[in-house]
Design brief:
Length: 108
C-alpha cells in the first residue's frame, strides 16, 4: 500500500481500533502464559504493569467493553461471565484432562 502522506501513517486511536488491538493482545497474552507461564504480578495493578506483563483477561475485558471506565456495565457483565462461566469451565476441562485414562481392554 502506498501512503500519500505522513498523516496516513499515524496510528488509529479510535475506540474500535483500540478494542481490536486489545482482542489481539488478549490472544497474545494467553499464548504467552500458556507457553511460558504467568509473569509474577508483585501486587501491582494492570495499569501499573508494563504492557508485556498484563494478563489476557485485562485485554479481553477492554476488547469487550472498551478501555477502563468506558462502559462500566459491560465491564461488570464480562467479569460476572468470566467468574461464573469461563473459570469454572476452564477448571473442569483442566481436571478432566488430568484424570488417568482407564482402558477396558484386558490386554492393556
Amino acid at each position: 500500500m502506498f501512503h500519500q502522506s505522513l498523516k496516513e501513517l499515524e496510528p488509529d486511536t479510535s475506540p474500535a481500533n483500540q478494542m481490536a488491538m486489545d482482542a489481539a493482545m488478549a490472544i497474545w497474552a494467553a499464548a504467552r502464559d500458556t507457553s511460558f507461564g504467568q509473569i509474577p504480578r508483585d501486587g501491582r495493578t494492570d495499569e501499573e504493569q508494563v504492557v508485556e506483563s498484563r494478563t489476557a483477561e485485562h485485554f479481553a475485558v477492554n476488547a469487550y467493553a472498551g478501555c477502563p471506565g468506558v462502559d462500566i456495565a459491560r465491564r461488570r457483565k464480562f467479569w460476572l461471565w468470566y467468574l461464573h462461566e469461563a473459570v469454572p469451565e476452564a477448571y473442569t476441562n483442566y481436571v478432566a484432562r488430568r484424570q488417568p485414562t482407564i482402558s477396558h481392554d484386558p490386554a492393556k
